[in-house]
């Protein structure tokens, strides 16, 4: 892999941290994107780690130029502050596979946690066929869809995603009709990022999109995104549903967790729900989706060809949680169809 960062200290820390894993080899470092460009051609790295905020040219601008000419898996190293979060989400739109947050200091437990996460994500990224994924991602989803007649107001859609999910969710949600049944989403993402992500989706969509707040009403035409570092559940409120935002232990290593959301929907919504698992690493959501299916809900998972990482959908298929695999470009139609029919 090639490490691109304008800080000599960060380059050294990342080189040592990644190089400590016998499965990983750091082939070089670069202090800016111009040096990186030359080293990419010379060294042909399998993966890049990329700082977003750099002199001469930002990481986002570099990605815009790099991906069409030399598609390579990229893991962004980002700051938690709002400007860094916005730039990171933009980088994901332009082809970065995933990101990690830089710790506030170059020592201590937080750094070790970050390096462990980075090692795991670099290994995941090395297996991603970026050129194939980018071709898939440019596909369109149907925009002129109609929700099923009759009882659409008491139906609910639940979606879980991780690596690659920001692009998949953007592709799906911008195609939702304005009166799509109420939708709740868990995307593995830290605080600050989720609010900015919700705002970016809202600006591109015909539905209302917002970061979920505790006791927020779930209704047609509204999409609620789980806030970073908080779990999102659904609870019945009279004849309708509302969000419950809460603390709690991480589940499958995540907070928010897709399993937590899906399990609450199995309890409270049952057969009136449709569950969707999109691209992501790991198994989060599989057991919760299985509970949903046993409660009568319809369940769908993104197919391997359109996923960045097929881990979460594969886990859902392997345990019998997902009824079938669906290409991202067909997912909205599949959801609409599932909303209007009962499971056989």
Question: How many structural domains are formed by the residues?
Answer: 2
- Based on CA atoms alone, the radius of gyration comes out at 20 Å
Q: Which fold does the CATH topology of the largest domain refer to?
A: Rossmann fold
Structural class comes to alpha/beta
Largest sheet: 7 strands, parallel
Name the CATH homologous superfamily of the largest domain: Methylesterase CheB, C-terminal domain
Biggest β-sheet: strands ordered side by side in the sheet: 8-10-7-6-13-14-15
Helix content: 25-40%
pLDDT averaged residue by residue: 91
- Reading the helices and strands in chain order gives EHEHEHEHEHHEHEHEEEEEHEHEHEH
Number of distinct beta strands: 15
Terminal Cα span? 48 Å
Structural shape: elongated
Low-confidence stretches: none
User: So, CATH architecture of the largest domain?
Assistant: 3-Layer(aba) Sandwich
CATH class of the largest domain: Alpha Beta
Bin the strand percentage. 15-25%
Total number of helices: 12
């Amino acid at each position: 892999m090639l490490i691109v960062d304008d800080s000599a200290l960060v380059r050294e820390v990342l080189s040592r941290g990644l190089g400590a894993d016998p499965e990983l080899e750091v082939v070089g470092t670069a202090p800016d994107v111009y040096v990186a460009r030359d080293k990419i051609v010379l060294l042909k790295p399998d993966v890049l780690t990329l700082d977003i905020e750099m002199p001469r040219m930002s990481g986002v601008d570099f990605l815009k130029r790099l991906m069409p000419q030399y598609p390579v898996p990229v893991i962004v190293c980002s700051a938690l502050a709002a400007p860094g979060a916005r730039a990171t989400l933009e980088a994901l739109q332009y082809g970065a596979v995933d990101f990690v947050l830089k710790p506030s200091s170059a020592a201590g437990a937080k750094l070790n946690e970050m390096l462990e996460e980075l090692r795991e994500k670099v290994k995941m990224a090395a297996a991603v066929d970026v050129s194939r994924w980018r071709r898939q991602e440019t596909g369109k989803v149907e925009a002129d869809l109609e929700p099923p007649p009759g009882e659409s107001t008491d139906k609910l859609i639940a979606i879980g995603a991780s690596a690659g999910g920001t692009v998949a969710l953007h592709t799906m949600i911008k195609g939702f009709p304005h009166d799509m049944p109420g939708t709740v989403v868990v995307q593995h993402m830290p605080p600050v990022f989720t609010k900015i992500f919700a705002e970016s989706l809202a600006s591109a969509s015909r539905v209302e999109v917002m970061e979920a707040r505790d006791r927020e009403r779930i209704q047609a035409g509204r999409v609620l995104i789980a806030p970073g570092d908080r779990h999102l559940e659904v609870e019945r409120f009279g004849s309708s549903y509302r969000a419950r935002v809460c603390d709690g232990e991480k589940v499958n290593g995540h907070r928010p967790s897709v399993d937590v959301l899906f399990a609450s929907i199995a309890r409270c919504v049952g057969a009136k729900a449709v569950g969707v698992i999109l691209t992501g690493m790991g198994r989060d959501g599989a057991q919760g989706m299985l509970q949903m299916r046993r409660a009568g809900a319809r369940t769908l998972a993104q197919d391997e060809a359109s996923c960045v990482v097929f881990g979460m959908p594969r886990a859902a298929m392997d345990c019998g949680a997902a009824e079938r695999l669906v290409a991202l470009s067909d997912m909205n139609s599949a959801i609409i169809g599932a909303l209007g029919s009962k499971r056989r």
